[in-house]
Amino acid sequence: MELRDLSDHNEYVPGRGKQEVAQEVGLDPSELIALSSNENPHGPSPAAADAVQGASEAVHHYPKASHADLMDAIAAEWDLTAEQVWLSPGADGGIDLLSRAVLAPDDEILIPQPGFSYYSMSGRYHHAQVNGYEVSKATAFEQRPQTVLDAYDGERIVFVTAPHNPSGTVMSLADIETVADETADSTVVAVDEAYGEYAEMPSARRLISDRDDVAVLRTMSKAYGLAGLRVGYAMVPQEWAEGYAKVNTPFAVNEVGCRAALAALNDDDHVRETVETARWAREYMREHIEAPTFPSEGNFILADVGDATRVAEMARNRGLILRDCTSFGLPGCLRISSGTREQTRQATETINQVLKDLQLGVYAWLRPIPGSSPDLRRSRGPSGRGI
Ligand SMILES: Cc1ncc(COP(=O)(O)O)c(C=O)c1O
């Protein structure tokens, strides 16, 4: 027996974890700063951590009540009906739910390139063809509706990521509406707001009241600090109300995740502190990192460092884990997550030191790489803050 043809499927490549890197570079995990996965540097809300402990006594039950309670709580938060909240294991699970509910074999989806890799993975699992529209470095990753529409060719799902991973740019609600208006009735615009809490722009949730062709993806992984529990959801039009029961894996989110998410939703202080720190950190990094950076509304920034693989490797050897964006098709760029204020200052210092050492050729002296140029430093933009 053979598996189906998976030759055009890609694997998800996560940011590297502390344990793995610590072993590699011979440091204790506690000495490392991991800013590679856009996680919450404050950890989970203490109330959510308590709920995890409390839930442990009840894990022999299916999560019937907690699943329903969480859908109700999210619905209340967003002023939706519970049927409009499609609870899922992470926003990844929400992407799968949309694929299951919308795609027939050989349908097509349209995704941002570069962009979050799971859109294409999920599309391919569901036998769809994957097409891309460009979010271009040359235009500072600006998200233009016309670029999406120029690439559009009747796809069933058009993904818009706001804030965009890995650049942090957004598309305004008016522009998202233009995309929804100008695409066919049979097309849904899926607005991925995994980083929505950190953005200044309002959620595309408000578009759902008046239209049946926009869905919004959210997660508890980022601002709520529950990445390890896998809790997310899609917000969908009322017209789709019956779809969830037909495509959902029974009890998609487990008891512990549901209880923790319920507690986290009630801890406004934790989210406020998280968002404040991230907004401070992205400005601090843009101000102080000695390389061009891009405006970001997420809990991370993108820096154009010249040879991201090498900079990431040198930073790793000094205890700082960053995301080399070569796998996104951006070999010059590093994505740097916001840390706590202390971590962010320390990371900025390390990155600047690495860039300086590269400029001086210290790295080449330590470990020569054939054909490499030691001068990777780029000049800063006219504002002094990069692109
Ligand atoms: C843009 C975007 N969407 C969705 C996700 C998935 O988040 P999760 O499945 O942890 O909720 C991520 C994770 O990094 C992301 O960057």
Helix-strand blueprint:
Elements: H1 18-25, E1 33-34, H2 46-55, H3 64-78, E2 85-88, H4 90-102, E3 108-113, H5 118-125, E4 129-134, H6 145-151, E5 157-161, H7 173-182, E6 188-192, H8 205-208, E7 214-219, E8 232-235, H9 243-247, H10 255-265, H11 268-288, E9 300-304, H12 308-317, E10 320-321, E11 323-324, E12 333-337, H13 341-360, H14 362-366
Parallel strand pairs: 1-10, 3-4, 3-5, 5-6, 6-7
Antiparallel strand pairs: 2-8, 7-8, 9-12, 11-12
Pyridoxal-5'-phosphate binds near residues 38, 161, 194, 219 and 221.
* Structural class determined from secondary elements: alpha/beta
Cα(first) to Cα(last) distance is 53 Å
Number of domains: 2
The H-level CATH homologous superfamily of the largest domain, spelled out, is Type I PLP-dependent aspartate aminotransferase-like (Major domain)
Instruction: State the CATH topology of the largest domain.
Output: Aspartate Aminotransferase, domain 2
Widest sheet: strand order? 2-8-7-6-5-3-4
Bound molecule types:
pyridoxal-5'-phosphate
Number-wise, the strands total 12
The biggest sheet, with number of strands, parallel, antiparallel or mixed sense and barrel status, is: 7 strands, mixed
Mean pLDDT: 92
Can you tag this structure with a few keywords?
12 strands, 387 residues, binds pyridoxal-5'-phosphate, Aspartate Aminotransferase, domain 1, Aspartate Aminotransferase, domain 2
